[in-house]
Amino acid sequence: MSLVLASPSSLLSPPTNSNGHHRQILTPRCNTSPSSPIRRRYHLRNRSLPLRCIISRREFTRCCSSSSSSMPFVIPSGTSQLQESLLYSRAYWVSESIIAWNVDIGDGSCYLYASKVAALSVTDNGIQGEDVKIQLVEDIQGLPENVIKKFPHIQEYRAFRVPSALDIKSLLKCQLAVATFTPFGNCISATGLQLPGVLDELFSYDGPLGAIFSEEDISLYLWAPTAQDVRASIYRDQLDVNPVEIVSLEEINGVWNTKGPRSWEGCYYVYEVTVYHPSTLKIENCCANDPYARGLSSDGQRTLLVNLDCATLKPEGWDNLAAEKPNIHSFSDISIYELHVRDFSSNDETVPPEFRGSYLAFTLQDSAGVLHLKKLSNAGITHIHLLPTFQFAGVDDQKENWKSVDTKLLENLPPDSVEQQSLIMVVQNDDGYNWGYNPVLWGVPKGSYASNPDGPHRTFEFRKMVQALNRLGLRVVLDVVYNHLHGSGPFDENSVLDKIVPGYYLRRNSDGFIEHSTCINNTASEHYMVEHLILDDLLSWAVNYKVDGFRFDLMGHIMKSTMVRAKSALHKLSKERDGVKGSSIYIYGEGWDFGEVAKNRRGINASQFNLCGTGIGSFNDRIRDAMLGGSPFGHPLQQGFVTGLLLQPNGHDHGTENNQEVMLAVAKDHIQVAMAANLRDFVLTNHKGKEVKGFEVLTHDGTPVAYASCPTECINYVSAHDNETLFDIVSLKTPKELSVDERCRINHLATSLIALSQGIPFFHSGDEILRSKSLDRDSYNSGDWFNRLDFTYSSNNWGVGLPPKEKNEKTWPLIKPRLADPSFKPQSTHILSALENFADVLRIRYSSPLFRLQTANAIQERVRFHNTGISWVPGVIVMSIEDGYQGVPGLSQLDPVYSYIVVIFNTCPTEVSFASPALRARALELHPVQLMSADDVVKGSSYIASSGCFNVPPRTTSVFVERRET
């Protein structure tokens, strides 16, 4: 072993100025390069993903470079491979004693280098500028099992032993590199190191982090084991230029802490972290917010010292809210309505202007939007899923900085004009609109939705919103985005975590550069303290804001173990101790399996198939695609089960008639599996007449359709904020000559399929009122104009101009003639009818527990599909649900009112008759809700007991019930 070692004290000493004095930094804001305010998302080569935005290489480069997350240097021509090698981090320090590197040294040697001032450089003779040089010896046994389990993507790497006598904790604060040499001393290769493995082993921590309030003082805790120095600048006001105090924090085993007086409460602070940053190869003074911030100043410039237990931040009755929450007997009783905070009220003239687009709009008693939510709640909706409400980039918190377009001008333009989108795009990055999938700080409510983004207003108003929704009978789900962060690097104003422990929180590829498959700056929940932060954040929202559920964005990029621990931690919360009934908190998310985590390459991830048996829900894209046709990535005219495949062609080439018949039959199989909660082991008869289990029904690429083990693991949906709205996609895929009346019926038929399926139904806001975004397929940044919701029911927002060029230009030739045709636009009567029909199917769902069976076994025993096999009636699904009788052997009795239910979905443009011997001689009648329906068409449904024959009108869902004898 060769060892050249500087004294440990010199490795840890704070940076000094040219006179040798410790620096006192008075200005907390470093020079910043503003990151892109646009929410950029791209998903390639994966059929299951919702389309958000596929960005060009030029756009992606700009997005990445703004946050220093791609290769940070332009390498001069003629630079040798060795000279540029420290730009990479291809070796992994995976444990205290092992460095993994994919190199073969043969008879040569390998060395580890460290420089506390980041002075390392590479020449043909090796690395220079080090304070420490340590020889490493290869372990021929390879990487141990525990390392391979944690880092499966490097399981073939070679293992190099680190001498046990080293002060590793001190070395980890330095610039680090490894290099290999020939037996003759020539340098072969060199690279930097990735440190999460060794950091987890040496510095995993379960204690307090963030600002902790006691009666006497306020303590600050920051996990930053690679930092050389940490200071906190304390400000009395969010606009003060100079801090009232600069405090040096002390380190104990990677956690920096300090204690201050209670007079700090209400003040703001910013950390300055002196740390080596691999993106610049320098020791940087990074200015950052607290990752555990619970309050912020406008646009997250500073962290607010806010005590969430303070009585003045609690609305009246807040502490007793758990007792007021609407009851949920079982997660199977859940139905979800997805809503964007700004969409809810920005266009609502019954809301005072100062409340529009804000948390407080939900607290009104009789606004159009609140009255609409009351209707939905009364019909059966149980949960409001709010799109991101944490602090995100892309919308200025200060409303006075927003730009807008005169809506009077927009309203006078033709319905197929290019001008609306052109005007909106000029201000799209400076208006008040963005979906919010640009995470900056996970644990603080977004300031732009508050009446005042400074101080504690956002906390108080968010709580009032939750309380108001609960009192409407609606539980609240938060859309959480733990899979990526908007900023990275030492200078990006939206970077937080990557400034404090560079290279730890963000997942990196084999070259050491940040992975971007989720959009940008993927996080790594497989690292201990990343998971710790996620769990603590969830608990904070649950306890401090009393929310009732969490929807995980791109959940497949989070590890399964993290999701399981999250569920366990939340369910341990109790009313007595925490003021929250944790067992009633439901979690679900997008279980798409793609990118660097696909096929468990980074460990077992929280993808659809991996979550089987956890009770965690995931979105079922199979039913969406089978109903509508194709996928969001296929041809926009590809038809599906409800949009006219075979039965009413739209002119698109779907192949031969025989091919279309097979496609329609396969789509029905997929839908029926989904209607049985997408259960892996549910047995049904497929279109070939064969009895199969759900997982034996396959998609076009051979993937099993079914993945769930219990009904609450399946979220059935046909539309969401991603992609076109339901009404828009129906208008695009159905024949142009179809009447608007028929399109409205198809819209309702689609929502009724979701509403009457087993599992948990999920609806995008506006599904029930024919919502249109003028055929915009990705409205994340399309402003209020294209995202408008009208709860006066006078318009559905169809035909407000060609949708934004960026994501829709390729389909403009298809879109333009449809928008120009006035016959496509629904009238107010259509919208009102759609709402009543939607409320009817919800009332039907909640009229019987048979629509909400709680176990896989109950579904298998009670749910049957008829009209199956090779002689089926095309375009028709027939489902029956059977109940038992008190005191009679066999099925137990669940429903006191109905003993048998038959639901028939007729997607055909004509009336159909269906007869089944199995359904003969029953006392079936049309459901009383439909008998009283404002829809005269459904009242034409009939059943003849002697023949078991049902007659169902065109494009109609008919529900027949058998009442119990009284």
TrEMBL record:
InterPro entries, A to Z: GH, Glyco_hydro_13_N, Glyco_hydro_b, Ig-like_fold, Ig_E-set, Pullul_strch, Pullul_strch_C, Pullulanase_N2
One Pfam family cited in the UniProt record for this chain: CBM_48
Record region (Disordered): 1-37
Gene Ontology BP annotations: carbohydrate metabolic process
Span of domain Alpha-1,6-glucosidases pullulanase-type C-terminal: 793-962
Bias kind Low complexity: ranges: 1-15
GO MF annotation, one: pullulanase activity
Annotated Glycoside hydrolase family 13 N-terminal domain residues: 208-293
Domain Pullulanase N2: 89-201
Family, as annotated: Belongs to the glycosyl hydrolase 13 family.
NCBIfam families named in the record: pullul_strch (TIGR02103)
Protein name: Pullulanase 1 chloroplastic
Species this protein is from: Tripterygium wilfordii
